[in-house]
Amino acid sequence: MEFLNSAVSAINNVLWSYVLIIVLVGCGIWFTLSTKFVQLRMLPEMVRLLISGVGTKTPGISSFQAFCVSTASRVGVGNIAGVAIAIVTGGPGAVFWMWVIAFIGCATGFMESTLAQIYKLPRPMGLFHGGPAYYIKNALHQPGVARLFAVLLAVTFGFIYVSVQANTIALSLEKAFSVPSIATAVVLAVLSGAVIFGGARRIAHFTEYLVPIMAGLYILAALIIIIAHISQVPAMFALILHDAFTPQAAVGGGLGSAILTGVKRGLFSNEAGEGSVPNAAATADVSHPVQQGLVQAFGVYVDTWIVCSATAFIVLLTGQYAIGGELTGVALAQESLASFFGAGAPAVMAIMIFLFAFSSIVGNYYYGEINVPFFGKNSELWLKLFRIGVVLMVIFGSLAELNLVWNLADLFMGFLCLTNLYAVLRLSGYARMALKDYMAQKAKGVQEPVFTPDVIGTTDGIHAWGVDKKN
After folding, report:
1. 120 by DSSP, 3-state: which?
2. What angle do CA 85, 74, 261 make, to 5 degrees?
């Protein structure tokens, strides 16, 4: 295991230091400029669409349910353990770079989710599916690249990320209740199997109720701590901004480490550009692709600017962290809450982490399931094997070392980003044309714009918008 961890770390150093930072930031800036800052000027419409989608009933999966599925995957241990790790490794300044990657990532998220809607495929009973593998195959006509992405995504989310979530659950339960990791592994495997073998509808309904509850409770805890330390809040923001450009001496690697840590942990949390969220976005039953693109773009803000910031404020205001210290990850988050709420806080935090991480396991599995048809002709067999593999990785993650599972997550996350952003860059013009059409209809007073493929000048690869109904 030690050799594997060292090898993965060496690859990550090259991949993240010289390739991905340039690609991610460059694409995010281009998408921001080419859409004329869609993440700012369309913010009111994002909020309107999200609110109006609550409780909407459709034959398939509603816009709000699709948002909850994606948020279930986004809002997980990256928002708690990942942020704590970022502060200990890169210092308070890493939080600023998490905010930056979220801002430009919002434009990236809009582009990829809008494309997923344009190129989604119809399924029986009013359902849809799609994502990067589908727009790579149907729009770019590169089945080999599509299959590569599908395998990468299924392995990354169905196996690697699932193990990260399980690992955090096991650590939190062991710290709070002294529950042996093997016991957590068994119980978690049973619960995960019960949900993922139930299919898309069960997953959508499960996340629709769980996600708002768990996020609301966590944010409430953060607000209480912020109010209690209100006099320290200005100094906290000053520290974040100062250390973003002049890190403390304890930060190994200085400014570069602060930036890299913030970007990696921010991306792991909000997933903008990875090509994961489009798989959920494609399932939504909406009248125009841009509607789901905007809703999913807003999800980047919810994840990083709200939930991740909640963890950062909890850790920084309670002062339990030490840069380069041994107390990190979920243990640091639990200790920070305990210092304010008392000895019972780690137990409550463990339950909250269980809800966060378990919902992510479910959401991560769903992304893999959508891409299983690319594995081979016998998709039913591949799906059964994939589900079994997910359950086994839940067990592995519960028992594995912390550093290995996080390093593997960074490695596969990097490969996913490169493959997806290649496709998004090539197809981005169609997303911009769809946005232009949406805004033109809104300017004419149309409350719910309707999409027709002719507005983007081609019907090639489009199967769910009145062109044909082939799968």
Report:
1. coil
2. 30
Query: Residue 72's Cα: distance from chain center in Å?
Result: 8
Q: E strands along 158-244, which residues?
A: none
Q: Are 461 and 135 in contact (CB under 8 A)?
A: yes
Q: Residues 397-429: pLDDT tens digits?
A: 888 776 777 787 778 888 889 999 999 999 999
Q: Where on the phi/psi map is residue 448: left (φ > 0), alpha (ψ -120 to 50), or beta?
A: beta
3-state secondary structure of 178: coil
Question: Which structure tokens are listed for 71?
Answer: 């948020």
Quick: pLDDT tens for 378-402.
888 999 999 999 999 999 888 877 6
Q: Which residues contact 280 (CB under 8 A, 6 or more apart)?
A: 66, 67, 69, 70, 73, 296, 363, 366, 367
Which residue, 405, 415, 425, 368, is CA-closest to 150?
368
Burial class (CB in 10 A: 0-12, 13-18, 19+), 216: exposed
DSSP codes of every residue in 268-328: HHH-TTTTSHHHHHTTB--SSHHHHHHHHHHHHIIIIIIIIHHHHHHHHHHT---TT-S--
| pLDDT tens digits along 86-100 | 999 899 999 999 999
Residue 199's pLDDT is 58
Q: How far apart are CA 267 and CA 269, in angstroms?
A: 5
At 142-161, the pLDDT tens digits run 999 999 999 888 888 888 88
Q: How far is Cα 345 from Cα 81, in angstroms, rounded to an integer?
A: 16
Tokens of 187: 């119980």
Rg over alpha carbons for the chain, rounded to the nearest Å, is 21
The tokens describing 116, both together, are 């997923």
Distances (CA, A) of 87 to 194, 220, 232: 36, 21, 18
CA atoms within 13 A on the CB side of 63: 27
Chain Cα centroid distance, residue 10: 25
CA distances from 205 to 36, 121, 126, 208, 394 (A): 35, 21, 16, 5, 22
- Report which of 5, 137, 120 is spatially closest to residue 63, judged by C-alpha positions: 120
For the chain, give the number of residues.
471
What is the spatial distance between Cα 242 and Cα 248, in angstroms, rounded to a whole number?
Answer: 9
Sole residue written with tokens 């809040």: 233
Rounded-to-integer distance, Cα 87 and Cα 364, Å: 25
State the residue for tokens 């790790």: 85
User: How much is the pTM?
Assistant: 0.85
Q: Provide the 10 A C-beta neighbour count for residue 249.
A: 9
